[in-house]
Specification:
Structural class: alpha/beta
Order of helices and strands: EHHEHEEHEEHEHEE
CATH architecture: 3-Layer(aba) Sandwich
Distance between the termini: 27 Å
CATH topology: Rossmann fold
CATH superfamily: Vaccinia Virus protein VP39
Shape: globular
CATH class: Alpha Beta
Largest sheet: 6 strands, mixed
Strand order of the largest sheet: 3-2-4-5-9-8
Helix content: 25-40%
Length: 186
């Protein structure tokens, strides 16, 4: 655990290679017609929809093979671009700016966290929102028995203190809108 920002990370020797990582993601059963998946993503969509302006332009970063969150936001009149390194690898969408970026169950997979933060912040116009969904570390004692650490693709774990540290570093406001949703404002 980092003594400054409280980020918990898995040592690089335990990271999967890209092929093994994608193989693991392919086991997920997310699909756009699944009401349970829609309910899960509504934890991100609902608070975000309250904060973004009508007809905003956004990016679903790490959308996976079934970009339901993008569809949910498009159904409310927003324009969404998709990016996922395995399923929607379109680097051109990373060369523009957006009113908001969403990353649902993504950040815990990012090996180079600082580079990802800089990339995301570079994608945001000002003012803009960065909405992140990830389970958060609650305590050191609970961490050792936490189901979230059992996923071999999860390599970094954030706590409230970590998000507050990031917000301070990049001069963002930070709002915890649920047990696993954080919205940062640039």
């Amino acid at each position: 655990m980092c003594g400054n920002c409280r980020l918990v990370h898995v040592p690089p020797q335990y990271h999967l290679d890209a092929e093994a990582e994608k193989t693991y993601y392919d086991l997920h059963e997310n699909n756009v017609d699944d009401p349970g998946y829609r309910k899960f993503l509504s934890r991100m969509a609902e608070p975000l929809l309250e904060k973004i302006q009508p007809k905003s332009k956004g990016l679903d970063f790490g959308c996976g093979p079934a970009p339901l969150l993008a569809k949910m936001l498009e159904d409310h009149g927003h324009e969404l671009a998709l990016f996922d390194k395995f399923y929607f690898s379109n680097p051109s969408v990373l060369r523009t700016t957006y009113d908001f970026v969403v990353a649902t169950e993504v950040i815990e997979h990012c090996y180079a966290a600082d580079q990802v933060w800089k990339q995301w912040l570079g994608l945001l116009s000002a003012p803009a929102l960065l909405a992140i969904m990830t389970k958060r570390v609650r305590s050191q004692s609970a961490f050792s028995t936490w189901h979230y650490i059992r996923d071999p693709t999860h390599v970094v774990f954030y706590s409230n203190e970590t998000f507050e540290w990031v917000a301070n570093k990049y001069k963002l406001s930070c709002e915890f809108v649920g047990a696993d949703v954080v919205i940062l404002r640039k």
